[in-house]
Amino acid sequence: MNTQVKCTINNNATGYQTFTAGSFSFDRCEYFAYITCPTGVHMMPIDNFLKALMRDIAWGFFYGTVAFDDVFGTTNHYGNVDLYLGSQHKEWTSAKRDFKENFKSDVLMDIFKLMMSDWTIAGFDPFAAPQETGTAWGPKNGNEDRLIERKREVAKRMVGIPGDAPLRTDEAGYPVNRAFLDVDQTQPVVEAEPEFEGELHAFNLFGYLSRSDVTWNPSVVSVVRQSLFCPTTEEFILPIDHGNDRVEWFVQFSDEISWDIKDGKTSRPLATVTMRAGDIAAMPGDIRHQGMSPKRSMLLVWENGSPEIMEMIKAGTVPMVPVTF
């Protein structure tokens, strides 16, 4: 397991730092990110790279694989993480140009955060929809640490319960998004029977989501034992391919998302799934998916937060589909 991480000043005219993690090095120019390892160099548009990097940081490497594109990404082993180039791409592996290196999760997270801070310039918010942010391109010019240091909202029981994750309000700096101005903001009234006061709770989930200032970033709004409800608002393109290591359930609340489904190991295209309001789909544990939302939509991601599932994943015994007939 490699723990070597360092950064140096890039002497080119752009003013950005060069970062090194083990055998990998990372550079950027005005338009592209360059990922170098012993078997080759890979280029990505810098805006796509930063949007993907932001999700990997915010999600703590997430469940399974966060693929920045078909060639580069990370795979979470919960405590340690693989950084790979070409390992999940048929042509790279066939040519024996794929490369993978394992790091302690906290070590790689530190270098990712430093890179995110140095490479994100003033006006660009890698969490926002394209119409709500500036450009990622150009020479070094300030930073957006205020935006990229957002904390992912995670409820212990349910949003709005005293001491738990707060509701989003105008007063808290969460105006209704331009795409959801027609969403009713009325909160439900709970009338509990005597002696049950404080044991019942409800909140307006659509109203809560209508005030999201980020896209493609699920927040945990309720926790019932090992069941996590993680809704999110989506616009334009999910900046990553998510390679599952467990089954996920999707419930489309509003509008429409088109999902490109690929084989999890080879990136080979498998299907396109279009979900409209009211549709429900299970994403298997051996695929990758990337969504496209023509207008801002609401999606519920239902996750299995079981601690036992981590050991099942390591043992290769976790089911790949929700039910076998």
Notes on the structure:
- This is Hydroquinone 1,2-dioxygenase large subunit N-terminal domain-containing protein.
- InterPro entries: PnpCD_PnpD_N, RmlC_Cupin_sf.
- Pfam families: PnpCD_PnpD_N.
- Residues 11-152 form the Hydroquinone 1,2-dioxygenase large subunit N-terminal domain.
- This protein has 325 residues and is of the alpha+beta class.
- The chain contains six helices and 17 strands.
- It has helices at residues 46-58, 90-94, 105-119, 145-148, 205-210, 308-315; strands spanning 5-9, 17-21, 24-28, 32-37, 40-45, 65-67, 72-76, 80-85, 99-104, 222-224, 227-237, 241-243, 248-252, 256-263, 269-276, 280-283, 287-304.
- Strand 2 and strand 3 form a beta hairpin.
- Helix 1 (46-58) crosses helix 3.
- It is globular.
Which tags fit this structure?
single chain, five-stranded antiparallel beta sheet, Jelly Rolls, 2 domains, twelve-stranded antiparallel beta sheet, 325 residues, 6 helices, alpha+beta, 33% strand, Transcriptional Co-activator pc4, Chain A
Give a short synopsis of this structure.
Helices cover 16% and strands 33% of the residues. With 325 residues, the chain is α+β, with helices and mostly antiparallel strands. The mean pLDDT is 94.
